[in-house]
# Entry
Amino acid sequence: MDTYEKIIGLAKRRGFLWNSFELYGGTAGFYDYGPLGATMKRRIEDIWRDIYVIGEGFYEIETPTIGIEPVFVASGHVHGFSDPMTVCSNCDSAFRADHLIKGIVEVPDTLSAPEIKQLIDEHGIKCPQCGGVGTFGEVFDFNLMFKTTIGPGTQRMGYLRPETAQGMFINFDRLFRFYREKLPFGVTQIGKAYRNEISPRQGVIRLREFTQAEAEIFINPRDKNHPKFSMVRNAVLRCYPASHQQNDSEGGGDSDAAGDDRAAGVIELTAGEAVDRAIVAHEFLAYHLVLTNHFLVRAGVDPARLRFRQHQPDEMAHYAVDCWDAEVLTDRFGWVEVVGIADRTDYDLSSHANHSQHDLSVVLEYDTPKQVERIVIKPDMSMIGPLYKDKAGKVLAALKNLKEEDLNGDEISIKVDGEEIRIARDVVGYETVIEEVRGEDVIPHVIEPSFGIDRIIYAVLEHSFAEEIVDKETRSVLRLPAEVAPVQVAVLPLLTREELIDPSIKIVDMLRRSGILVSYDDAGTIGRRYRRNDEIGTPFSVTIDYDTLDDDTVTIRDRDSMLQIRVQVRELAEKVHAMMRSGFDSP
Amino acid sequence: MDTYEKIIGLAKRRGFLWNSFELYGGTAGFYDYGPLGATMKRRIEDIWRDIYVIGEGFYEIETPTIGIEPVFVASGHVHGFSDPMTVCSNCDSAFRADHLIKGIVEVPDTLSAPEIKQLIDEHGIKCPQCGGVGTFGEVFDFNLMFKTTIGPGTQRMGYLRPETAQGMFINFDRLFRFYREKLPFGVTQIGKAYRNEISPRQGVIRLREFTQAEAEIFINPRDKNHPKFSMVRNAVLRCYPASHQQNDSEGGGDSDAAGDDRAAGVIELTAGEAVDRAIVAHEFLAYHLVLTNHFLVRAGVDPARLRFRQHQPDEMAHYAVDCWDAEVLTDRFGWVEVVGIADRTDYDLSSHANHSQHDLSVVLEYDTPKQVERIVIKPDMSMIGPLYKDKAGKVLAALKNLKEEDLNGDEISIKVDGEEIRIARDVVGYETVIEEVRGEDVIPHVIEPSFGIDRIIYAVLEHSFAEEIVDKETRSVLRLPAEVAPVQVAVLPLLTREELIDPSIKIVDMLRRSGILVSYDDAGTIGRRYRRNDEIGTPFSVTIDYDTLDDDTVTIRDRDSMLQIRVQVRELAEKVHAMMRSGFDSP
# Structure
């Protein structure tokens, strides 16, 4: 049993994660969060909000999970969001074609569909399902968006969004006004995204429906320094730069490829050094690497199993300036991407501006207005009027848009209603004027940290899991941070006797009223009940015993140290809140 | 301009609600929550969690928004979740056919598709879009689930869930184990649900994608008393019982029908009276009416514009025992359903048990075991063996399942492999035994409070909106509860001067670190900035002035009373937290 099986077994048994629709046989690529999993998920999302929404001031918005076609044409998803697929003609199973040739080529992502097909044929790849050889049909691109139709009829296509990002990009102009037309500003979204995988086979690591937390930060393209960089300059990052990956066989690999951390490849350096040595492109990106690191560790990822891997040039989207993945080390899947942090330049806004025919540029005001030379075209109307008659107005408009360099030849060429018109140079005069310009139009650049919440939850479970021998028995414990643990306090009467149960229930009510999630458990020996709570990561257990009846005190037991302290019932809620913030108060 | 337009205008302008996809022309039935709307939404969801998840101990789970077909066959949605639709053959517009005959029949819901078509023809209904008469095609049932396919090919249909409930029902057996096999227990889910409306025309009131918060509480069908009923017995409810609606023209109406509160129909009574007088079916339901009332008022619904309307017998689902809607009064839409609270009996679990062929019954243990008479069939094997040869085993098994009443005639009839076999009565002996039975198998009943979060948000906006004359100008203010207001504190330097801005920014950082959502505003006169914050419901504004530089104090201004108090900067965060809990601390 590998660690993944152990974690998934625990997660299933105790109500963290369940295969969806199991009552009806289930379907790959879908997981339910059970009572403990959903609670833990919400806590992790709330930490993310605390850092990004409250801390950074990036307001959260919520846009639909269904999107209309033009949005995803502009974003490139209708045409570019696909995986190569092939079907076995013998057993009808569908496969990711690039996965079939793993081991034959190092980076199958870069091959075209016909190239993949050729390799499958040349190497006589067997169908993993039925073992048939030479049975694969053509390789074609399968679009990974779930499709639907909106309303009756089939005219209006809808897609389940492949990322939350587009809902923020298409609201750029409203958001810019909301932030009183100043850069930089950030906006966030936590919500479902979808990817209609061809045949997902990696459990919670590759889901068809998953949760993203994304921030889109719109910045001045002329200034990628971060105003608060001095606060993070000395924070240490474990970086795996692109240049270090070239000698490693796993370089540029799939996010889910197994692999080891190579001591030679990963370097520890401060955010300041990373920028100074041009390892990270600029301060804004480096600041967000630090913030991501901070979030992941606070959520419960083991810092020793966390690194930032830079995309290699051929791996990065063509428009991106620099891109880093936060990767976590897992026992079964090796290094797994959980966050992507990219400088996407003006790609998204420019594309939406083009497709929607809405100007999404903003005016960057200069500190002081600039004097700029500009030419003003002065066409000779006494000649243009008679020459072009009712087209004269349009000719004039076209001429006024000319630039200085268009006036170099003997003739001037313009287009009117699609038709080229050539005009003798001397019909058009011009003069140079000096104008005061208060700013310039730019399309903001976008810094995007994009978090895969489900993978982070799995990583936190695996990294916090420990087995240790206590009293000659194996104790399983999830050492979850107190603010992440689903159950915050277990209330346990020492014995299942009415005189202890009644005050226990009162304590449960009191703690709940103070906002603490409490479980009550009176079944089995106290030792077994401690173990049950250790296994789900409950940080504190409160035990009610016969002394409670005498002096109104209870014990609080710490999950990690297993130490106990005795406190007054009336101080209990406050004490628990304090310990959730600052840790167990050892005796 | 009616109130709806006013609210939507404010909501759009200030970033609460935006039409989705407006950059690409928009699509009816989808709304974005902007920065303030999404924040407010999250706060309302958190209040719901505080009451249901923490307070009641109903753990939250999270199941996929995409579901597979068998789930919705069992739930009845594949065959029954539809609206009658017709298309104008002249302009191709699609319409809810029942909406076309509103005003002609009182309750169009009860008519069949051909009946509706006949009425449309008889009354010569015009197409509301193009004005054509007699142009409507057949009326047919349009299924309201969004459809998609999971994975490649078309074999596996997927539907976007029409409610979050099914994800909880199909996990019943796991949840029952999670709760250590005891009734009652509750489970909750907050998430997206979908309804592919034919042509939604009511803005945020009728959405194609919306958020539900649902609780499914599984109870002992033999005992519908609530263990904590004594705590709510004296809570007052505004009830509109089914029997009072029969004289009112709007009785049994559509949830979105306009209408007035009829003094005669609505009665105020305590939860205890409601149960004692058999107005509400039982304690468990009445308890949840009170809890719903508590939630809605805490979220900001005006108690005077809130009532509980009982479903009329012909309006209620056939399996339900009793059903109440919480309705809020809105200016444009009249009384709008925002919550439904129903006793759904064993309908959901029985249906899933039948369709999945999994037993979803539970054993209700008796306090003391019962002695029960049972017959034991004793077939005469010396005759059955030779008679039925290799079928003998199956015949035996069929005989053992017989009940006492099957043994009355001269012959016994059983079925083996679909074939009827008749056996002479005297071949089969039986005897009566007394058995000790420790409990009985029952399928739990379900109490379901189901909340439409989007409508609640709209109601809270409308109910908290006020205009009043202050200093001869109209002040618009959202009197949102402090725990619901998106921005909790506005930090405002009295003047836009560096010496005041610097300490203001420090105060922003300090408040954010304490978990408060702060906005900073230094543009315009202080009066205008107060108004801007009044309009979005910010409960407290902190002003930094020249006294701050001298004595380290700031003023806190209360949104509602517009009074101000002066506090020490070092006490500010704590003071604000206290006032968010208990209200403004008047001078």
In short: The longest helix of chain B spans residues 35-55. Residues 487-582 of chain B form a domain with the Rossmann fold fold (CATH 3.40.50.800).
